[in-house]
User: What shape does this take?
Amino acid sequence: MAKYIKYAVVFAGQGAQNPGMGKSLYESNQAARAVFDQAGADIKYDCLEADAERLRQTEVTQPAVYTMDMAAYAALISALDIDGGGFSAPAALAGFSLGEYAAFTAAGVIESVEAGLEIVKKRSLLMKAVSTNPDGSQRGTMAAGMGDKDAVLRLVETARGADILEAVNFNSPQQTVVAGDASAVERFSTLAKEDRSLGVKAIQLSVSGAFHSPLMRPAAEGLAEALGGYAFCKPTLDVYLNATGGLFDEYGDDAGSPDDAGAKARAVMVRQIQNPVYWQTIIEAMASEGIAAIIEVGPGKTLTGLTKKIAPEIIALHVEDEESLNETVSRIREA
Assistant: This one.
């Protein structure tokens, strides 16, 4: 029976945003509309009306994408009638970078969308602060290295010099994102262009900081302090982690007692903000567990494309508007 297909849901991250990203779901789906309304007028405006330049600002982007992720997830859950018993719940969840906070909310680690938004807002302000020089200019940036992973890593070592430059997103066999000081990222891109024998193509990313790099360490310290005011719970669904590629429940002893979900959640979030994202490892782990379909929820379909490259045998779907919601529900029910 279709209701027993083993599927996972993954949540889009920062960088996937686009103007008007929530309008279709807001107008067509009651469950999604409730999430946008709960987020408040300012965030609803950013999701439905803001232009690309405003959406590029970290303190705007993160709450907006988190809200869009949760609205798209609510629309999917409603359409599949999971709460009413019409379809089985996801076998696993994961979220890319910021999207991990949406995954934690969907799994009950974060108790509510309201709490999730509070945490995401604090995270975004901390990340903005460490990404800005005293004169107001942007300190760090990121670039996607397209090509063999080992070739990208060798180029990182060559380009780093005395600056900070690290591989921070291991997205697929042919895509590794690097981040660090703007000067080092520029050298990385220049060397890739000048030496074609490396087989690496560098694509500058439209981001406002060097996320998941050591430049985020002060933000991690601030986040650790901020998270002390929140309670967290053991996940009700399997959640794969950016920082390890493994499950939340298997996170190491350094996070505290295995039974202390709160300490573990805080340790995971603090580590994630300054450490690489092992997305390829996550998708490969899902495939090894017999996941037959992966549904990306939130703006864009970047993660859908990565799924096709990492595990082409898996059905890759997405939900970002009314059309994609209807198509995904139809495909899942027929699978």
About this structure: The domain at 2-130+217-334 is CATH 3.40.366.10 (Malonyl-Coenzyme A Acyl Carrier Protein; domain 2).
